[in-house]
């Protein structure tokens, strides 16, 4: 009787533990960085590259949200093109904070269409965190 009972417990643990492990192994690792300085994009891209190597096939999305007064620099299309190219190379999505664009008088037409604009970068960052993204603000 004890053997039957112990065998049943082991069987139940095996049945319920494997789906949890399988689910954890297949989840993608997603990242978001909120920055207020354009030059920080260089080390952010290096970080994305390293994490992509470490995570392998579990590497998911990597988004960079640009907020604050630095959004004025997004209108310098020549300077920004090198960052846009690196972002594409490292599979990083560039996001501009619409609230900052409005506050500092930057017309959305004056920035590259490669930038996705969200209405509120801070709110968007928190929403991604709720979805399980690993986040850091610089």
From TrEMBL:
Gene3D superfamilies: DsrEFH-like
Signal sequence annotation: 1-22
Keywords: Signal
InterPro entries in alphabetical order: DsrEFH-like (IPR027396)
Taxonomic superkingdom: Bacteria
The name this protein goes by in its record: DsrE family protein
